[in-house]
Description:
This protein is an alpha/beta fold.
Amino acid sequence: MQGLMPFLKAAWRLALPYFRSEERWSARLLLGAIVAMNLSLVGMSVVLSFWNREFYNALQDKNWDAFVQLLFTWRHTDSGLMPGFCGVAAVYILIAVYRTYLNQWLQIRWRRWLTGRFLDNWLADRAYYRISLTADQQGIGTDNPDQRIAEDLRDYVDSTLSLGLGLLSNVVSLFSFVGILWGLSGAITVFGIAIPGYMVWVALVYAVIGTWLTHLVGRKLVGLSFRQQRVEADFRFALVRLRENVEGVALYQGEAEEKTGLLTRFTAVIDNWWAIMRRTKFLNALTSGYDQVAVVFPIIVAAPRYFSGQLPLGGLTQTAGAFGRVQDSLSWFVAAYSSIAGWRATVERLAYFQNAIEAAREAAGQGVQNAGSPDGGVHTVGLALNLPDGGRLLRGTDLSLVPGQSVVITGRSGSGKSTLFRALAGIWPFGSGLVERPQTGTLFLPQRPYIPLGTLRHAVSYPAAATTYGAQEIETALSDAGLSRLIPLLDKEENWALRLSGGEQQRLALARALLTKPDWLFLDEATASLDPEAEAELYRILRTRLPGTTIVSIAHRPTVAALHERRVVFDRDAEAGASGALKETVEAA
């Protein structure tokens, strides 16, 4: 966990950019209006403090006229013109309503801006990809990015505004009511020493003791809140993971193991929650007792002056009210401790996440370098590939792929062929050397296609918009890919990643290639889920429909290798952990 100053700097670093952004004037205006309304409510509380004194004095004096005037109109008093309660209450309600409305308006605007900023940074320079590859064992800064963007940003904005405005209101209230309480307190003599404004000093001592005890009891809540957010996210991720792989679990009959795994994660949620409950129980016992004593404490302390006739009933109630406001302001930390603990955990999670994104983006220019091809081919120069932990997959290698010549890359399972595929795509960051390839006109299809949410039309058009291709183009591509039965479902929204089989998903990806018509098509076992006959048929269709496309395949099957003109072998002993090399044969075998 961070110390206090680094934590405050992190909170400030998260907040400041929005108020300096392109939305700064609207943000500052909204914040200023909310602050002004908060201060207005404090001012009205001061007015009500004096109104309260006059009202109770009227009750004590049985003054009917004063009673009615103070309720409905106004009255001239020793404190000046005192407005009626109804008017003050109406204005108070109006300001309170619009303060909440403007606060919510600022919250959603701020959250929208922060979400856009985090998404931009997370997706830029493929930071999301590097972070997923370099996740540390504890997940600090890298675990559950969905929760950080969707929930932590929401909680951060809400807590920052509520705690910040609450602190401001309490500081202003403190200075406003200290003067009132000082004037009402008079002096008390202790051991022959006259102490002026003694009620102020009593409130200060009372609040300091309460704050110290609260921090002593509740400080562990910060760490527990931090961990609770993490274990909750881990449990939710496990549930989502199960939902996305229901067929695999069903085929393996892995329900018992899945249940064990889910309950293990949920046990972590429960155990941490019990720890929070126990700590919160002690904290609530302290704060509840503190608050209850505060109800009668000022009256008891001020009672001697009331019974001696130095204070009228209204003065006593005003003293108790002013003491309560001063004590509440001084005890803001006590009342808000749980909220502060949750806010701190949220800030630290976001700060870690932001640091991880920045580190990933700073490292974007390191490792394997990418450049445009001078001749339209694909070339590697001294390409060396490493694992994220530093293990070497491929020693420095030069490879040239020329347009028009189909190439198959084979090798033993686990040798590193898919990593080479990622390096050729320009996304693998670990290693050294140079990859030159055309900057446009390339399409890479992995073994497990990505199927986005939405309609089937959107899925087959991805990453282009669903309106990019005409209906006839899409229907022809689906038909050529062997998915003609899906044509009537083009505009139906479903979770197609679950609806389609593995082979159908690979056919859908190949339909994308038929629509895109790339100059270079890289296939990483992109037909592995199909039978050899279907595989050969799809390669034939690709060659027929895309005569200008150079196909580079990564595959295990000899039948696929036979469909290419050139063969490169990734020779590496994965068991021994040695670095590999690319060995070329003259023709595909």
